[in-house]
């Protein structure tokens, strides 16, 4: 069975593009980008139909099927990398500090982060709890500041599903 490399590569790249768009569309939908996600889906399904027709017209050549499958896997990987670079959405970060006497809330505010602080009781005494809502683009910067200022801090983060009121509401609504 002869390998027709231009078709094999075309199938690979078409499916890579399709799955990359599929991954991005899914992530846009999950992050609440209700206007952009449908536009991406129009391009996505067009590319899908083209890629599928290329394979279905040439099912007798297993290289085409392999190229389709490899394009799928690489497309998921590329989509994740692109989404990570775009860093869509927001993160809620909770920082629990072992000491209540700390400069960290001020340092974070000086760096543009909104911080809500509260006192808490832990197993070994009083703690300071910081709640910080941050765009994902700044998440790693936030962690670096916390680690430098308070290396013993306990930090946990999650993606909020709903935000209402407070420091970030106007920015979140504008998306």
Automatic annotation (TrEMBL):
Pfam family, one: DUF2179
Keywords: Cell membrane, Membrane, Transmembrane, Transmembrane helix
Record's GO cellular component terms: plasma membrane
Superkingdom, taxonomy of origin: Bacteria
Transmembrane segments: 6-24, 36-56, 62-82
Topological relation to the membrane, as annotated: Multi-pass membrane protein
Locations listed in the record: Cell membrane
CDD domains assigned to the protein according to its UniProt record, in alphabetical order: YitT_C_like_1
Domain DUF5698 per the UniProt entry, residue ranges: 23-80
Principal localisation: membrane
PANTHER family the record matches: UPF0316 PROTEIN YEBE
Protein name per its UniProtKB record: UPF0316 protein C5L31_001419
Organism this protein belongs to: Secundilactobacillus malefermentans
């Amino acid at each position: 069975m002869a390998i027709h490399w231009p078709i094999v590569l075309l199938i690979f790249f078409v499916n890579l593009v399709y799955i990359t768009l599929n991954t991005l569309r899914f992530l846009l939908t999950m992050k609440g980008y209700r206007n952009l996600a449908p536009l991406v889906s129009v391009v996505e399904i067009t590319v899908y139909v083209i890629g599928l027709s290329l394979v279905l017209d040439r099912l007798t050549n297993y290289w085409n099927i392999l190229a389709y499958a490899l394009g799928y896997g690489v497309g998921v990987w590329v989509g994740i990398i692109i989404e990570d670079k775009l860093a869509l959405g927001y993160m809620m970060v909770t920082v629990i500090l072992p000491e209540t006497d700390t400069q960290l809330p001020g340092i974070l505010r000086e760096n543009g982060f909104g911080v809500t602080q509260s006192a808490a009781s832990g197993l070994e005494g009083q703690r300071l709890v910081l709640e910080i809502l941050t765009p994902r683009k700044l998440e790693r910067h936030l962690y670096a500041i916390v680690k430098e200022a308070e290396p013993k801090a306990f930090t946990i983060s999650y993606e909020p599903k709903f935000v209402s009121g407070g420091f970030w509401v106007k920015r979140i609504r504008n998306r």
